[in-house]
Design brief:
It contains 13 helices and 19 strands. The chain is an alpha/beta fold and 474 residues long.
């Protein structure tokens, strides 16, 4: 009966997306595997979502931390562990590719640092593979998730520029989406200058502590820091979760610094990475020219130069966490708000860490003993129009959970994601299946993003979202 409910919920999910993203994202990973255990950690997590993201390449590269060698053997070892748990993962969701399929797209980059590995005679199976994947008859964008140095991508762009006509090159480059974890070699700046239309998300800083992505593993006031503790990883990921969990190494510097480069590609109802300014599990970014005047040379991290054009880079959210209430309304806002670029990522920490833990359970547990995410159902489109000053209602009645768990609703306005930046409060209760708002009075057309956070009461609690874009007309 539980499996039948799961099938029905999946069908309902397809019906309920109403304008949400139905297609899986395509992605190639560039990883300086072996420089820091965090790349191994990130690959373990990524493989748990291999049925929800089309992993079209995993390329071993260098970086500023790993300048003259590559370690494809680390990738092979982790894929061997994945192969052992894949049959159990398939009990929970379909679509997990075989380990052989992933091995076939695992490639080598060049064991040279940065621009030393870019130019004539520097082609590798990794750079040629990027071009081959780009040239497929597939109109979906190709995300390049850069966990180390990006010179393999730089070489692919160099070759495209030299060997394709200008219209052909522009078409290929227009399909690229790059999310890189800071600049870890000097080819990054070369690419942004040489290819000014290249879609690029990056924190170009010589100080990792200032970046958005560092919020994945830093302690932050207002966040549940127990979810990034070594005891949490030991209990929920490493021990008692089969060969893949056992292959998740202890943290040496910071855990999973590269994971934000793909968190926003997971289809959860919130993520929409074509619009980095909308916010996602991977953080929120605005298209701007970052100020590099405060950066200091002498760091072992690549020191950025002034940008020559806008890129998707750090911005700020203001966030007030909710907490459970013992009596009356089940949730209430906490007493303190938090602001900053790190907030754009850690505000979702409980949700993406619980999701990780649940999927790791799938490696060993039968379907009936594990938890699975709830299914959002909206009774209206995900984009609506309302008149200035008029009331409107959002309705998610009919949302469900495949395991039969109790579900909780939480609606909130995400002002930074829309054009109308002033916070708009709800009318009544925000934790009901329906919520009422009054549109603000505007003199020009504005957009508001209202987020529904739907969570089950399983263990661990899992969350999915709906983003409703409300256009307010004068």
């Amino acid at each position: 009966m539980k499996k039948l409910l799961a099938i029905l919920s999946l069908l309902l999910a397809c019906i309920s997306l109403q304008g949400g993203e139905l297609e899986k994202h395509r992605m190639i990973v560039l990883t300086d595997m072996g420089a820091d255990p965090d790349d191994e950690q990130s690959l373990v997590r990524l493989l748990l979502y291999a049925n929800q993201i089309d992993i079209e390449g995993i390329v071993a590269t260098t970086s500023c931390w790993h300048r003259d060698s590559i370690r494809p053997d680390f990738i092979r070892d982790i894929l061997a562990a994945y192969e052992k748990v894949r049959p159990n993962l398939l009990l929970h969701e379909s679509g997990y590719p075989s380990a052989d399929t992933l091995r076939s797209v695992s490639k080598k980059g060049i064991p040279k640092y940065g621009m030393e590995g870019v130019g004539e005679g520097m082609d590798t199976e990794g750079s040629d593979w990027i071009i081959e994947v780009l040239e497929r008859d597939d109109e979906r964008p190709l995300w390049i998730s850069v966990w180390g140095g990006p010179n393999v991508l730089a070489q692919a762009l160099y070759k495209i520029d030299k060997t394709r006509s200008k219209p052909e090159a522009e078409k290929l480059i227009s399909k690229l989406r790059v999310y890189t974890i800071s600049d870890q070699d000097d080819s990054a700046m070369w690419m942004r200058k040489t290819f000014p239309k290249l879609f690029y998300i990056v924190t170009p800083t010589d100080d990792y502590g200032k970046s958005t992505w560092i919020a994945i593993n830093n302690n932050h006031e207002g966040a549940d820091n127990s979810l990034v503790s070594n005891p949490w990883f030991e209990a929920h990921i490493q021990q008692g979760h089969g060969p893949l969990g056992a292959r998740y190494p202890d943290t040496s510097w910071g855990f999973e610094g590269d994971t934000p480069a793909f968190l926003g590609l997971i289809p959860n109802g919130l993520n929409h990475m074509e619009k980095p300014n909308w916010g996602s599990w991977g953080g929120r970014y605005e298209l701007s020219i970052p100020d590099v005047k405060d950066f200091q040379d002498g760091s072992s991290v690549v020191v950025p130069e002034p940008e020559t054009r806008p890129i998707w880079t750090d911005t700020s959210d203001t966030y007030t966490p909710y907490r459970k209430s013992e009596f009356k309304r089940a949730v209430e806002k906490s007493d303190k708000s938090y602001s900053g670029n790190a907030v754009t990522l850690w505000r979702w920490r409980e949700d993406f860490q619980n999701d990780f833990a649940a999927r790791m359970d799938w490696c060993t547990q039968p379907y009936d003993e594990a938890n699975h995410p709830p299914v959002v159902h909206l009774n209206h489109p995900r984009e609506i129009r309302v008149k200035s000053g008029k009331g409107f209602t959002l309705d998610a009645y009919g949302s469900s959970d495949p395991d039969g768990d109790s579900i909780s609703y939480l609606w909130f306005h995400y002002p930074e994601a829309g054009s109308y930046k002033k916070f708009v409060p709800h009318n009544g209760a925000e934790n009901f299946d329906r919520v009422n708002y009054t549109a603000p009075k505007v003199e020009k057309e504005e957009t508001m993003h209202i987020i529904l956070k739907l969570s089950d009461k399983g263990t661990p609690s899992l969350t999915r979202y709906a983003r409703v874009i409300v256009t307010v007309e004068p």
